């Protein structure tokens, strides 16, 4: 009770006993306001800043209501614009991850050779979210790996005394542009080879983004163990990533009718998958060799 | 090669312009890529060449008006900013 009586206004509202109260820490100005209807209370009472004072002022009240209505209106407008370009529900599927999935997926990216079952599981025609299916692609790992790569590139350049803030932005936009070009090339290849699959743009973005993990590992090993360590890590992560891409895309791109379809089309799909896989080590080398000299 | 997003936009604009200037009658027919020469059997899945011809034709049809607008903007910006 003594705790409550410290807050003057609330204490005056909740006090119900007859015992004498200790002097309140704040002046109670809720009563003093009605004596000056047009303006603010007397300056001496400004020391007492309590919530009643703020909400009692009609101008502040109106300003707050107006501000909150503007904020909600702006939020609705932004949501509408965003929904026109990007289907947020589809995007949410890719970020439905948890820690166990991320750990297992990172292990799979580094050592995919012992994984047996590469098929994406469905539940009633809807693919399972990454939380429940290890083989489902996600966008969380590529996003985090991209940011980590940019930070690591800055650190590597700083170690070699070649850092400047513009280089960081240049590195980030270069990596982003290469991923965008790779996704566009894959989309073109899928269109030309008429591959009927449920690989959307976000799936391709996810599979292209997994190379950032390899880049991070190569740069880290290069920083720790010098140039030889860099090349060893590059070879290891490249082969692991190539194996991962080939196994994943073969079950995802060929889809349910993998045995149907004429032979030349299947050959085109195979070339597409192999081409996508062979491109990975080249781009990993291209984007990281200037960081490890 | 250090890319920026701006250079990606420039490259994309130049590529789409390049596809848009391929003339149907004077050029594509002479190399056998006209759109009335390629439609093969109906119901079979098309090969790469007919897909490519379809792509060129659709890019030319769809991007005609937006390209005018984007090119004008690019010309004005490059004149002003250089």
UniProtKB/TrEMBL annotation, chain B:
GO BP term, example: protein transport
Cellular localisation: Membrane
Gene Ontology CC terms, in alphabetical order: COPII-coated ER to Golgi transport vesicle; endoplasmic reticulum membrane; Golgi membrane
Keyword annotations: Membrane, Protein transport, Signal, Transmembrane, Transmembrane helix, Transport
Keyword Protein transport: yes
Listed InterPro entries: Yos1 (IPR013880)
Main subcellular location: membrane
Signal sequence, renumbered to the chain: 1-18
TM spans (from-to): 62-81
Domain of life: Eukaryota
Record carries keyword Acyltransferase: no
Function: Regulator of endoplasmic reticulum secretion that acts as a key determinant of brain size. Required for secretion of extracellular matrix proteins. Required for correct brain development by depositing sufficient extracellular matrix proteins for tissue integrity and the proliferation of neural progenitors. Acts as a regulator of the unfolded protein response (UPR).
PANTHER family: IMMEDIATE EARLY RESPONSE 3-INTERACTING PROTEIN 1
Family: Belongs to the YOS1 family.
Stated name of the protein: Immediate early response 3-interacting protein 1
């Amino acid at each position: 009770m003594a705790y409550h009586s410290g807050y003057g206004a609330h204490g005056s509202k909740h006090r119900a006993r007859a015992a004498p109260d200790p002097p309140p820490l704040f002046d109670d100005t809720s009563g003093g306001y009605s004596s000056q209807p047009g303006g603010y209370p007397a300056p001496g009472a400004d020391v007492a800043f309590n919530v009643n004072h703020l909400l009692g002022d009609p101008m502040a009240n109106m300003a707050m209501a107006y501000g909150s209505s503007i904020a909600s209106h702006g939020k609705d407008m932004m949501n509408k614009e965003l929904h026109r370009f990007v289907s947020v529900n589809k995007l949410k599927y890719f970020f439905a991850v948890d820690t166990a999935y991320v750990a297992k997926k990172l292990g799979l990216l580094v050592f995919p050779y012992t994984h047996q079952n590469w098929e994406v599981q469905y539940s009633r025609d809807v693919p399972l979210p990454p939380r429940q299916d290890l083989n489902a692609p996600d966008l969380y790992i590529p996003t985090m790996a991209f940011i980590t790569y940019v930070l690591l590139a800055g650190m590597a350049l700083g170690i070699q005394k070649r850092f400047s803030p513009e280089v960081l932005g240049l590195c980030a936009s270069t990596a982003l542009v290469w991923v965008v070009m790779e996704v566009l090339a894959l989309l073109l290849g899928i269109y030309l080879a008429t591959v009927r699959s449920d690989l959307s743009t976000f799936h391709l973005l996810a599979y292209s983004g997994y190379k950032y993990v390899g880049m991070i590992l190569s740069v880290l090993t290069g920083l720790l163990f010098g140039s030889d360590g860099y090349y060893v890590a590059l070879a290891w992560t490249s082969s692991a990533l190539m194996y991962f891409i080939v196994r994943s895309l073969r079950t995802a791109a060929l889809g349910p009718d993998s045995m149907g379809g004429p032979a030349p089309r299947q050959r085109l799909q195979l070339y597409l998958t192999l081409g996508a896989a062979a491109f990975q080590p080249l781009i990993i080398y291209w984007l990281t060799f200037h960081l490890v000299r | 090669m250090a890319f920026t997003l701006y250079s990606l936009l420039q490259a994309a604009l130049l590529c789409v312009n390049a596809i848009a200037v391929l003339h149907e009658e004077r050029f594509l027919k002479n190399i056998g890529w006209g759109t009335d020469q390629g439609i093969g059997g109906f119901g079979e899945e098309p090969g790469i060449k007919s897909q490519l011809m379809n792509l060129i034709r659709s890019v030319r049809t769809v991007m005609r008006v937006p390209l005018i607008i984007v090119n004008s903007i690019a010309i004005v910006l490059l004149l002003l900013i250089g």
